[in-house]
Amino acid sequence: MGVVLPDNKRIDYALTLVFGIGWTSSKQILEKCKIDESIRVKDITEEQVKKLVSVIEKDYPVEGRLREERNENIKRLREIGSYRGLRHSMGLPSRGQRTRSNARTKRGKRRTVGALSKEAWAKLDQNQTKE
């Protein structure tokens, strides 16, 4: 699937490094393939790798396919003009979180608006008179 798993890690953790597979789905995949969770990645046989890949490809959207699907869903929300689509296009939280005091990861670094010092106002006045 285009992801190189680290050899010295346990297989249950290593599968979570694939985008779209978390702890729960990792355990489910290993259960379907009948592979012990505590085995290391370097100790897995070729047959077990083939089983893992076939189960993951059949049942789980991962990596590029999952990213594509997610982007298509967001694009669809924007096109139909839904509230969630508008929030996505404005770069704001789309699930009802407050934005007055938080949401720094979505909105970016703080920018002060309104309250300027006397020195800053003086600089603005000088720039406007020169023009």
Characterization of the model:
The longest helix is centred in the middle third of the chain and has 18 residues, at 63-80. Among the domains are: 11-60, Orthogonal Bundle (Helicase, Ruva Protein, domain 3), CATH 1.10.8.50; 64-99, Ribosomal protein S13/S18, C-terminal domain (30s ribosomal protein s13, domain 2), CATH 4.10.910. It is built from seven helices and no strands. The protein has helices at residues 11-15, 23-33, 46-59, 63-80, 83-90, 104-107, 118-130. It is mainly alpha-helical and 131 residues long. The protein is 56% helix and 0% strand. The mean pLDDT is 85. The radius of gyration is 25 Å and the shape is elongated.
Listing every helix as H and every strand as E from the N terminus to the C terminus, the arrangement reads: HHHHHHH
The residue-averaged pLDDT reads 85
Helix amount, in percent?
55-70%
Q: Which strand-content bin applies to the residues?
A: under 5%
CATH architecture of the domain at 11-60: Orthogonal Bundle
Query: What is the CATH C level class of the domain at 11-60, in words?
Result: Mainly Alpha
Total helices: the number is 7
Weakly predicted, low-confidence segments: none
Quote the distance from N terminus to C terminus.
59 Å
Sheet with most strands = none
Q: Which of globular, elongated, flat, extended, rod-shaped describes the shape? A: elongated
Protein structure class: mainly alpha
Based on CA atoms alone, the radius of gyration comes out at: 25 Å
Fold-level CATH name of the domain at 11-60: Helicase, Ruva Protein, domain 3
Number of strands: 0
